[in-house]
Amino acid sequence: MSSRPESPERGLHEPEEAALVQACRAGDAQALERFYRAHVDRVTRVIGRLVGPTPDLEDLVQATFIETLHSFARFRGEASLSTWVIRIGVHVARHHLRRGVRRQAGLGLVPAADDATPAEAGADARLDDHRVAQRVHVLLDRLSPAKRIAFLLYVIEGYSVEEVAALTGAGRAATKSRIWFARREVLELARRDPLLRELAAEDEEKK
Amino acid sequence: MAFKCLQTEELLTAALSGRASEAERLLLEEHLEGCAACRETRAAFEPLRRTRRWEPDLSDAGRGRVLRALLLAAAAPEAREPARSAWGGWGTVAVAAVFAFAILGLFVPAWRRAAVPEAVVPRDPVAAANARDRMRPGPDGKVTLEGAVVELAPDTEALWRAASRTIELRRGAVVVEVSPNTLRGLRVTTPSFSTKVLGTRFRVDLGGVATESGLVRVFAADDRLLAEVGPGQRWREVGSAGPRTATSPRPRVEDRQREPRPSPRSRPADRTGRKGSRG
Ligand SMILES: [Zn+2]
């Protein structure tokens, strides 16, 4: 179960955040590690949700943090540090999607062998969710990256239209229309996709 | 107020992303019971609900690798706050801070000073490089790729596979300068192992890798991660003297290799499923 995203404004207080950014800019390893650990899970989740299951996830997360390192100089605190990092992650994801190269873990593969989480009760369901997500993202490949990203941030990650607009650097009206058109396309593709129907049917049987 | 079928998609969306109120959900459920068309719409939403349940995650090992890469990037002063950050101008390659790494077949210290081979000069080096073809340098001995410049030693034989961003080194040596701001990794393969890098400086010969700065990942021929080689560290394949080590013995890590992480992680080599124009 995924909850609504934490409020972007949550986190450190302004002076504290400014001090952390200052230390990170100076290359303070402890500060960087603190910053990294505070944000890596969320960055990973958002990027993963935008690009879908891919062996490139680790590289994309890495690119996001390296890029953030380059960008600390321009951090003025208008947005929270958390929003700032997610914005960069969204940008990295869009860049990746524009490349148009989809490297997928094969259907049925869990993300990566050394990523194996303890296989317990939820393992089956997790694998199935992974497979469904994989297929949905194959369909999403047919949408423009801008539409795909707006749609997923809004529908899957639960950001508001205003937040999506801020994260993608687009206007409110453009964001709304992207979400609307993307939803129409996605539903149409999902209705027509035989594999997805099959996976959904499998799921129904298991219930 | 009567419920209209037109509202269904909006309400299903709200329910999916957790925005629907209890009253809205009840209204929706009630309507779905009596409307087959809208139940089909709900079925079309099902894959999205499942997609939302999928939680992307990195392993502890993966999180550790990214942290090390971040700390190493921060330790390199030129990597921090370049004159023009990619955040302000993505898409173009920043040349302000350029990292270099070298792949050397038979390392000849003086080869850079040697005469440039009498290669055919391509009209457009970028276009030439994008082809899945032999790398042929211009008069300066270089080939320009997106986010990287490759210099070829005389008598070097190397192929560039644009789709997978891979340089296949068959003979000789290459020096590759990767922009630290590029988001696109680059891979160099030799007959027995391959390396992967996102902006760093290192040298490889067919028997091993030595890193000056940055972080280099070494993979076996079957794409298993063999080692991560940090600054000042060296990794050698045991007993590999020549380019052909098809049945290479188990490699070991020398020097200050902190974590010789033999990893079962598979890295599918096939990345040729590209479509559309190149990015
Ligand atoms: Zn209806």
Task: Summarize it.
The complex is a heterodimer of chains A (207) and B (279). Chain A has 207 residues and is mostly helical.
Overview of the structural elements:
In chain A, 68% of the residues lie in helices and 0% in strands. By secondary structure, chain A is mainly alpha-helical. Chain A has a domain at 9-103: RNA polymerase sigma factor, region 2, helix turn helix motif (Rna Polymerase Sigma Factor, Chain: A). In chain A, helix 2 (29-51) crosses helix 3, helix 2 (29-51) packs across helix 4 and helix 5 packs antiparallel against helix 9. By secondary structure, chain B is an alpha+beta fold. Chain B has two domains: 5-53, no CATH class; 125-277, Jelly Rolls. Helix content of chain B is 22%, strand content 25%. Chain B has an eight-stranded mixed beta sheet. Chain B has a seven-stranded mixed beta sheet with strand order 2-5-6-8-9-12-13. The longest helix of chain B is centred in the N-terminal third of the chain and has 18 residues, at 36-53. Chain B is elongated. At the A-B interface, helix 2, helix 3, helix 4, helix 5 and helix 8 of A face helix 1, helix 3 and helix 4 of B. Zinc ion (ZN) binds at residues 5, 8, 31, 35, 37-38 of chain B. The site of zinc ion (ZN) has 6 residues of chain B, from helix 3.
Task: Based on the model shown, name its key terms.
heterodimer, A: 207 residues, mainly alpha, Rna Polymerase Sigma Factor, Chain: A, 9 helices, 68% helix, B: 279 residues, alpha+beta, Jelly Rolls, 2 domains, eight-stranded mixed β-sheet, binds zinc ion
